[in-house]
Amino acid sequence: MSENKNCRTIETCFTPVLFPHILTKENFIVIIVDILRATTAICTAFGNGAVEVIPVAKIEETKKYRGLGYKVAGERDGIVINGADFGNSPFNFTKENVNGEKIVITTTNGTQTIEIAKHCDAVVLGAFSNINVLARWLSEKNKNIVILCSGWKNKFNIEDTIFAGALIERLQLLSEYNVNCDSSIAALDLWLLAKNHVLQYVEKASHRHRLKKLGLDDVLEYCFTEDTTSVIPILENGKLVNAL
Amino acid sequence: MSENKNCRTIETCFTPVLFPHILTKENFIVIIVDILRATTAICTAFGNGAVEVIPVAKIEETKKYRGLGYKVAGERDGIVINGADFGNSPFNFTKENVNGEKIVITTTNGTQTIEIAKHCDAVVLGAFSNINVLARWLSEKNKNIVILCSGWKNKFNIEDTIFAGALIERLQLLSEYNVNCDSSIAALDLWLLAKNHVLQYVEKASHRHRLKKLGLDDVLEYCFTEDTTSVIPILENGKLVNAL
Fold first, then answer.
1. Each residue of A27-36: pLDDT tens digit?
2. Measured between beta carbons, which residues in chain A are less than 8 angstroms from residue B183?
3. CB contact under 8 A, A154 and B205
4. Given phi > 0 = left and psi -120 to 50 = alpha, else beta, which region is B173?
5. From the list A156, A206, A207, which residue is nearest B14 (CB)?
6. pLDDT tens, chain B, 244 aa long
7. Looking at chain B, which residue has its C-alpha nearest residue A1?
8. pTM of the model
9. Can you give chain B as a three-state secondary structure string?
10. Which of A21, A101, B10, B12 is the most exposed place for a label (fewest CB within 10 A)?
11. Which domains does chain B possess?
């Protein structure tokens, strides 16, 4: 393990409940990950011209935005919530649906995770959809990295973890980082195991089967496709906007 | 993913802070893991004839047992605590030191983990030291399995995780279990990656380097050696005894 004390660090947090225990205490960017499907969907929304996305943790909070002209996207456990314009499938966030629009969104895991991190200095969203543009953007900042996986109801999940590994792989290619965090090391190893047959690997994941049971797994291939958008959703005053 | 609803399940918990979020709610045995070094040391103690080991979370609690004739083993962050007979290196738990003795022990991570699980119906300790005898014993019980890794100060660690994977590998060889838990799937994959060169793999682990800095890494090879003892430490009324 080579260690350069001047290097930026990369730390991975497998579920939100572990976030208070991170060792990185200053000068860091949090990358929120919820591959199936919140962060993939929000990247798609910006890719298709959404102006602003407000993530809210509670269903009730969507109501006040409806009156303000926002479109409402929301679900719990994969089921579209009452009164929403659509659920959280990336396929809902088409140009027709979102171009020029403001959107309020609530999801089972992803928006809860954003809520937990919202007081941090810098919060961005990561997905395979924006992985390489995100990696380049991060490598140009003089900031430590904390990858915060949403998991599934505070449990570790495979899809967010292999994304963390894929992002770490890119960051280490682009710049010098210390990776002294066992979670990051494990995430990278799992990604290296998965990368040549990602969809086959993800067959193992429990959430993939949860989506299948709900008939929501049509998005699977899309959620693991790299670079479908060139956007970086960044949190500014409680609203996500495109940093690029 | 084949699923038999009558099968016992295996769930893995990467750190104690995730334990309240386990999905297995009944009829389970908790296997506490702290490879470097608490559960390895306690298996060694029983292997060398200790009669009873009381795990306590706080240093102060060791004091009352000293007056009752217990030997005291304890450390924090790898440093032996004041007043202890020895620290938590498995090499301290020799026949000369522990045969016929009662011991009270407090450690940085492992004894805290036992504290968290102590209200569960059945709590046993696992280490590479007792892995195969433990796997056989578990496979003969009609119980679900929850593997509770101690981690390092509530962070995920590699050494406990690959042990979880190694135990899952044995359990699946011996009997039929459902492994629908992403943590267990990841632990097994990391173990399969590590198993043919475990010590080399563990070079990556941050705690291995923490021990090295403290000069406490002489135990490394021993801690990853399988079946050095034929014991199963089990918690009974707050005391660990040998179940065999």
1. 999 999 999 9
2. 155-156
3. no
4. alpha
5. A156
6. 445 566 999 999 999 999 999 999 899 999 999 999 999 999 999 999 999 999 998 999 999 999 999 999 998 877 899 989 999 999 999 999 999 999 999 988 888 999 999 999 999 999 999 999 999 999 999 999 999 999 988 999 999 999 999 999 999 999 999 998 999 999 999 999 999 999 999 988 877 777 788 777 889 999 999 999 999 999 999 999 999 9
7. B204
8. 0.95
9. CCCCCCCEEEEEECCHHHHHHCCCCCCEEEEEECCCCHHHHHHHHHHCCCCEEEECCCCCHHHHHHCCCCEEEEEECCEECCCCCECCCHHHCCHHHHCCCEEEEECCCHHHHHHHHCCCCEEEEECHHHHHHHHHHHHCCCCEEEEEECCECCECCHHHHHHHHHHHHHHHHHCCEECCCHHHHHHHHHHHHHHHHHHHHHCCCHHHHHHHHCCCHHHHHHHCCCCCCCCCEEEECCEEEECC
10. A21
11. 8-242 (3.90.1560.10)
DSSP state of A196: G
Contact (CB<8Å) A186/B182: no
Three-state secondary structure call for residue A174 = helix
Q: How far is A18 from chain B (nearest CA, A)?
A: 7
**How far away is chain A from the Cα of B176, in angstroms, using its nearest Cα?**
17
Q: Does B156 touch chain A (CB under 8 A)?
A: yes
The reply to whether residue A205 touches residue B185, judged by beta carbons under 8 angstroms, is yes
CB atoms within 10 A of CB B214: 12
Which A positions 1-20 lie with beta carbon below 8 A of chain B?
1, 14-15, 17-18
Distance CA A57, CA B6 (A): 36
CA distance A48 to chain B (A): 32
Cβ within 8 Å, pair B182-A14: no
Distance between A115 CA and the closest CA of chain B, angstroms: 19
Q: Which of A153, A104, A147 is nearest to A11 (CA)?
A: A147
